[in-house]
Write a structure and sequence with these properties.
The complex is a heterodimer.
Chain A lengths: L5 H21 L3 H26 L3 H31 L13
Helix pairs in contact in A: 1-2, 2-3
Chain B lengths: L2 H22 L3 H21 L3 H26 L11 H24 L1 H4 L10 H14 L2 H22 L4
Classes of the chains: A mainly alpha, B mainly alpha.
Chain lengths: ~100, ~170
């Protein structure tokens, strides 16, 4: 039988996480930055599933389950914050949302 | 090249391409749709890893619910083309090399770690039918308390989203 080595999945996970970090740093739209966070969470999920497979244990899959739940909660609250910010400031550009900057 | 390899490389290419599209797209809606692409190809990879329940959850919750929420907010706020701002000099010259270094470092250590070297050898014994049942047993016995805690987390998230997004009277 010929299966894909686990390390391939881990490398793909690392690449996706790196791209997520790049998107997080480069994008200027608050919604797109949330998407970058989702991309990083997805990359971590892939690593979890790959490790669960490598060790033949199901705990990793349970963690993925929890990560998905937390991501859903985070997206709901984060997007509500984005809506509030837009109502108050009329912009989604994080360059102009600098109230906490000093 | 066997079928799993081909499937893996096609899905990996689609995932990385989608992630690149997310970075390069100017419109937030294009970024959202390319993120859906990444999530669907990751779901195929989960199937390849024998985690069919997680693959279904990935499609239903991530590509379905969460991304619909994103698209809905993008449409609601009428988010248009994002304007580019000039980056700092430091980010311009140090950012790309450092980012590439981080990426290569991560990939290198993941590929050469002890665990990375172990190959999923002949674990077809993790037969697909029992996997979901075992997962649910694990979830509702060993991880019962975290499971209940997440229900409170979800409740707080719902309340928080409601309070934040409602119009001030």
């Amino acid at each position: 039988m010929n299966v894909v080595p686990i390390s391939y999945y881990l490398v793909l996970s690392a690449i996706l996480f790196g791209l997520g970090v790049v998107a997080f740093v480069f994008k200027r739209n608050i919604i797109t930055i949330f998407m970058a966070i989702e991309l990083m969470l997805n990359a971590v999920n892939l690593a979890f599933v790959a490790f669960a497979r490598a060790h033949n244990q199901l705990d990793g899959l349970v963690f993925v389950f929890f990560v998905i739940v937390v991501a859903a909660a985070e997206a709901a609250v984060g997007l509500a914050i984005a809506i509030t910010v837009y109502q108050n400031r009329r912009t989604l550009n994080i360059e102009q949302i600098n109230l906490l900057k000093f | 090249m066997s079928l799993p390899f081909i499937l893996f490389f096609v899905c990996a290419l689609i995932a990385v391409g989608g992630a690149l599209m997310l970075i390069l797209a100017r419109e937030p809606i294009h970024s959202a749709l390319s993120l859906v692409l990444v999530m669907i190809s990751l779901a195929v990879l989960y199937l390849l890893l024998g985690a069919e329940f997680i693959a279904a959850v990935q499609i239903i919750v991530y590509a379905g619910a969460i991304m619909v929420l994103f698209v809905f907010v993008i449409m609601l706020l009428n988010a248009g083309v994002e304007e580019r701002t000039d980056f700092s000099k430091l980010a311009k010259y140090a950012g790309l090399p450092l980012g590439m270094f981080l990426l290569l470092e991560l990939a290198h250590w993941m590929a050469h770690s002890v665990i990375g070297r172990t190959i999923a050898n002949g674990s077809e014994a993790a037969n697909t039918a029992a996997s979901t049942r075992e997962l649910s047993t694990q979830l509702f016995q060993k991880y019962l308390f975290p499971f209940e805690a997440t229900s409170i987390l979800i409740l707080i998230a719902i309340l928080g989203a409601l309070v934040l997004a409602k119009k001030d009277e």
